[in-house]
Amino acid sequence: MSKAVFLEGSLMRHVAVMSATSSVGILAIFAVDFIDMIFISMLGKAELAAAIGYTGTLLFFTNSINIGLSIAAGSLVARALGAGERARARDLATSVALVAVLVSILVPIAVLWNLQELLQFLGATGETLEFAIRYSAIIVPFMAFMGIAMTSMAVLRANGDAKASMYVTLAGGVVNAALDPLFIFGLGLGLDGAAYASVAARLTMGASGLWYVIRKHDGFSRPSARVFLSDIGKVLAIAGPAVLTNLATPFGTAIVTREMAKFGTEAVAAMAVIGRLTPMAFAVVLALSGAIGPIVGQNFGAKKFDRVRGTFVAGLKFVGAYVLVATALLFLMRVEIADLFDASGEMQQLIFLFCGPLALFQFFNGAIFVCNAGFNNLGRPLYSTAVNWGRHTIGTLPFVLLGAYLAGAAGVLVGQAVGGVFFAGAAVLVAWRLTGRLEPRVEIEEFEKERRLHKVSFQRNW
């Protein structure tokens, strides 16, 4: 098990290195999804691209559960390492992994049982619905492998080994990229081929994640019913709110998807392209939660509260600079991006809209990611839940409805972006006040400790 590596050195460097290495892995996975969309577009049916859009929203729900559990793993392991309790960190990592496996068995059963109804709720109809059902039925049963992969990557990041975490996702990306053209075109499987390639990638990620954690860091202990039962409360105290927090995002996406479906298949296909393009262009932003969490957790566990607040500041500066650069590149390449998908008409206009001013609003999403990572690792996971659900309900539905009324499909995208500004501001304000209270609290604790020692000494002398 590695030592706590984030207790010293430049915080900006830690944030940049962790975000960059984590984003490479994320980029590998979403790059393959992006290529999937290009391949599927080559088949010449907008319904296929729309089907992937609906299925992506559904899979977002299941993956959000895994993300929530991985947040619990990262937070608990990082804090234990920061406090110098390495054996305890191993036990906690194992307990979270067992919870992930149990949840990943139960959730797919419920999803598959109600698959058609769920996709219809999102707005899928006719041939698009049939394609989405086929695609989902192949991928959903393999949720457990993704759960193991995400938990393992969180444990690796908590140990400061962002490179190994990156390699796990890279392995999945390479497998998916290699099998996509073979299955889709070589074997003539079309949409089903893309699904089978994704399954192979999930299997690869789960296996490689376990290998790195066990062989490189000895990061899991031998499963024990006694330890598991004693840890389950601690795990669920963070995982429960974290899962709820992450379920807010696909809930908000579902609202947007339903509204966009009212404007036809082209609008949904454009949203599916944007949904693949966003993590490609802003992988570093998406990586911030997993990157900053271990830095906050280790320093909080070691009671270095000045570095906890410094991590927030470094994270916000980093995301601001990155979003400016990424938006500029998207704007310069907007025509080439649209041409990749043979986009025209409304589909092209929506892609152009995203690649212009709307991409700048990713800063506010990044600010929320930074704050939520801090809340989870400072023992305030319900703050993250409140911020995310507020952003994806009150900060989404009225803005999207108003945007759709005023400007159609384009207004839906604008409304979704604008709604996040208010909740990002609220999250930053709360995080700033929370980190400001940490230092005075420890000073009071030290004063009380010293007072008690003097009192005991006085009584003995008397």
Brief summary of the model shown:
The protein is mainly α and 462 residues long. The protein is built from 19 helices and no strands. Helix 2 (46-82) packs antiparallel against helix 3 (86-113).
Task: Please explain how this structure is put together.
The chain has helices at 11-42, 46-82, 86-113, 115-122, 126-139, 143-158, 162-186, 191-217, 225-261, 265-281, 283-286, 288-301, 305-332, 334-340, 345-354, 362-377, 381-392, 397-436, 438-461. With 462 residues, the protein is mostly helical. The chain has one domain (11-461). The radius of gyration is 23 Å and the shape is globular. The protein starts with 10 loop residues before the first helix and ends with a helix.
Helix content: over 70%
Could you say which structural class the secondary elements and strand pairing correspond to?
mainly alpha
Q: Beta-strand level of the residues, as a percent range?
A: under 5%
Over the alpha carbons, how many angstroms does the gyration radius reach? 23 Å
Count of distinct structural domains: 1
Summed up, the helix count is 19
Largest sheet: none
Q: Could you tell me how far the N terminus lies from the C terminus, measured between alpha carbons in angstroms? A: 48 Å
Average pLDDT figure:
79
> What is the element string, with H for helices and E for strands?
HHHHHHHHHHHHHHHHHHH
Oligomer: single chain
Low-confidence stretches: 440-451, 453-462
Number of strands: 0
